[in-house]
UniProtKB/TrEMBL annotation:
Pfam families from the UniProt entry: S4_2
Keyword RNA-binding: yes
Keywords: RNA-binding
InterPro entries: S4_RNA-bd_sf (IPR036986)
Name this polypeptide is given: RNA-binding S4 domain-containing protein
Organism: Clostridium rhizosphaerae
RNA-binding is among the record's keywords: yes
Amino acid sequence: MKEIKIDTEYIKLDAFLKWAGAVGMGSEAKIVVQNGEVKLNGNIEVQRGKKLVKGDIIEFDGESYKIV
C-alpha cells in the first residue's frame, strides 16, 4: 500500500488520482471514476468530487493508496 501525504484538510477523488500518479490527466480520472473502477474504503465510488480525508483508502488498477 502506498501512503500519499496531503497538506490540506481534504482532497477530491479525481484530484487525488492525479496527485498520486494513478492517472495521467484529470480527464482520465473522471472516466475511471464514472466507470466504477475506483474503490473508496472498500466500496465502489462514482462521485469524482467526493472529498477524501486522512485515513481513507483508495483502490485502483491493482494498487492501494492510503491518505496520510
